[in-house]
UniProtKB/TrEMBL annotation:
Keyword match Aminoacyl-tRNA synthetase: no
UniProt keyword annotation of Transmembrane present: yes
Record's protein name: ZIP family metal transporter
Protein keywords: Membrane, Transmembrane, Transmembrane helix
Protein's organism: Paenibacillus silvestris
Length: 402
């Protein structure tokens, strides 16, 4: 055997040993976990009470009665022994069964004569005596998916998202009249708008997380979604910096980023509107439509701000309005037909992260331009623009909060 062959054989032997040392801890870990699962910990204390968690995910009202969708998010199998509606025991049909394994979903059909406008309470009693409750604040027939309703929800999303953002973009010719310092003020105002949106998005995400099954760690999903989406977009941004010119980066591309972040936020607004109509609160849904429409017109200003040095065409503005406003249509559909608290919490987190990344990009633009022209990046004018952006969003949000 030649010296080269001996050297190659020795290297292969070293690689095999390294791989074995890498696998050995995993094998031992699996063995330990298997042993604990089979033998147990040796502690024989019985729990003081059974550990059961049953989440009421959705209550639907129809001519046939009340339909309750539930999820067993506890560690053990659950058997629903009795159903109580408004204090009276009631017969019910269970699909697939009255017993649900861990993470299994079920549907309970209750032939109960609910009354329009009245509050109703459904209690589910397990075989171990634990009680889980679902409530209907004001009874109304749940909308069934039809082509007409699908189109109506789409029109609502268009009113709330696309139209107000488009109207805000109409301020572009006026904004172009500003000097360099004036452009920085407008960009600072944009950061103020986005600061308010990111806080609002986090708050809405945490509200959804509170309603989601605890086993899915909804609050963690909001934070994880925000962190990962922000870092992912920053990584993509840095990768594209090598391929695109500075002008392209600071113009159309940044506006698209802003529009994308705002679009994710507007998806959440669509969820709120669709959910309000789905549970029969038409007055609340109409109130939200008016409030969000007035609130969202200011978003167009923020999207237009990075374009002040460019000469975009009509197609660019239409595209930006659709990117920022279009998700409101999808959100309205999702809220009205397939709403899920856990996924909503994750999506709000992703939206918050996307907006944070846009704030980072715009801040870099201001710092870079200020250094180039020997201007103060944190001047009183810029501070005033930032404050004005937050105040504008806060005041218009008063028309939505209740």
């Amino acid at each position: 055997m030649s010296y080269a062959d001996q050297k190659e054989t020795k290297a292969s032997s070293i690689n095999v040993k390294a791989i074995l040392w890498g696998i050995l801890p995993l094998i031992l870990l699996i063995a330990i976990i298997a042993t604990i699962a089979k033998v147990g910990t040796g502690i024989e204390n019985e729990p003081a009470a059974p550990i059961e968690v049953l989440n009421v995910e959705k209550i639907t009202l129809s001519d046939d009665g009340i339909q309750v969708k539930v999820l067993n998010s506890g560690p053990e199998e659950i058997t629903i022994a009795q159903v109580v509606v408004d204090g009276a025991f009631w017969n019910a049909e269970f699909t697939p069964s009255d017993s649900l394994k861990r993470f299994e979903r079920g549907t309970i059909n209750i032939p109960y004569p609910w009354v329009q406008g009245d509050p109703h309470e459904v209690k589910l009693i397990t075989s171990n005596g634990l009680i889980f409750t679902g409530e209907v604040a004001a009874a109304a027939a749940t909308p069934t998916p039809t082509g007409k309703l699908f189109a109506q929800y789409a029109l609502i999303g268009f009113y709330v998202g696309v139209i107000p953002v488009g109207l805000g973009l109409l301020w572009y010719p006026f904004l172009r009249r500003f000097s360099v310092k004036g452009m920085h003020v407008i960009l600072s105002l944009t950061i103020g708008l986005l600061f308010f949106l990111v806080i609002d998005t986090f708050e809405e995400g945490f509200e959804m997380a509170a309603e989601a099954p605890g086993v899915f760690q909804g609050t963690g999903l909001v934070w994880f979604g925000a962190l990962l989406s922000c870092l992912f977009l920053i990584a993509v941004d840095q990768s594209n910096d090598r391929k695109l010119s500075s002008r392209t980066l600071e113009g159309s591309r940044v506006s698209r980023k802003i529009a994308t972040g705002i679009g994710l936020h507007n998806f959440g607004e669509g969820l709120a509107i669709g959910s309000a109509f789905a549970v029969g609160e038409a007055a609340l849904g109409t109130f939200l439509i008016i409030g969000f429409t007035l609130h969202n017109i200011t978003e167009g200003v923020g999207i237009a701000a990075p374009l002040l040095k460019d000469r975009p065409n009509l197609r660019t503005f239409v595209t930006l309005a659709l990117i920022a406003g279009g998700p409101a249509i999808i959100g309205t559909w999702a809220g009205g037909f397939i709403f899920n608290d856990t996924l909503a919490a994750l999506f709000f987190g992703i939206g918050a992260g996307a907006i944070l990344q846009v704030i980072y990009v715009i801040s870099k633009m201001i710092l870079k331009e200020s250094a180039k022209r020997n201007l103060s990046p944190v001047s009183w004018l810029n501070f005033g623009g930032l404050t004005a952006g937050i105040l504008i969003m806060y005041i218009t949000a008063l028309m939505v909060k209740f």
